[in-house]
Design brief:
This protein is an alpha/beta fold and about 180 residues long. It has 3 helices and 10 strands. α1 crosses α2. The longest helix is centred in the N-terminal third of the chain and has 19 residues. The two termini are about 15 Å apart.
Length: about 180
């Protein structure tokens, strides 16, 4: 079994790229179906830094006109959420009267995505949907519907494919789970 070491912890292979890719294919099909007749190009909103790989992979599968914006948020320290969402970098473009698709690496408690939806609505987005690569189903409080979910995972700390452990591990092409 393939394992990697990041800082003080070991991680083992959990979801190979082939499975991630097939799951993104499915989500892209759903998004293409829902947005193919959009009168205006929707905004894909990449939540940095974790969603960067998901965004790249998803975008190349979308076949309607769309624009790309980013925002940088942070709530995790080490292997757990601090519960406080910090805005490290604001929205890179206005969202007023635009359809927005939030692209997230992972939804855990859902606090990050909830606060982002509130913020986008306050700033006048005409619609907001959420696409996430991963969902920790047992943890998510389920307050707002998640429109597109590529993969559901148990409540374990994972890294790779954009996700980090204290900023390293994002470049791993597969997803790894903490080994304890
Ligand atoms: P939430 O606000 O609790 O839903 O946490 C979401 C954010 O926490 C994600 O966008 C990630 O940046 C980070 N996060 C949650 N779970 C993990 C994990 O297992 N590994 C790495 N980062 C995670
Ligand atoms: Mg994130």
């Amino acid at each position: 079994m393939k394992t990697v070491r990041l800082h003080d912890k070991f991680f083992k292979l959990f979801i190979p790229y082939s499975e991630i890719s097939a799951a993104i294919d499915r989500v892209a099909d759903e998004i293409n179906r829902d947005y193919k007749d959009s009168p205006e190009p929707p905004i894909l909103l990449c939540v940095l830094s974790g969603a960067i790989m998901f965004t790249g992979e998803l975008m190349k599968r979308l076949n309607f006109d769309c624009t790309l914006s980013s925002i940088k948020l942070s709530s995790y320290e080490g292997t757990s959420s601090t519960g406080v969402i910090k805005e490290i970098m604001g929205l890179t473009s206005p969202v007023e009267d635009r359809d927005v698709i939030i692209l997230e690496d992972i939804v855990d408690t859902g606090r990050t995505v909830h606060s982002l939806v509130d913020m986008l609505k306050k700033r006048g987005a005409s619609s907001v949907r959420i696409a996430t690569m991963l969902l920790k189903t047992e943890v998510y409080d389920g307050d707002i519907p998640l429109d597109y979910v590529a993969l559901e995972i148990p409540n374990r700390f994972i890294v790779g494919f954009g996700l980090d452990y204290d900023e390293i591990g994002r470049n791993l092409p597969d997803i790894y789970v903490i080994d304890n």
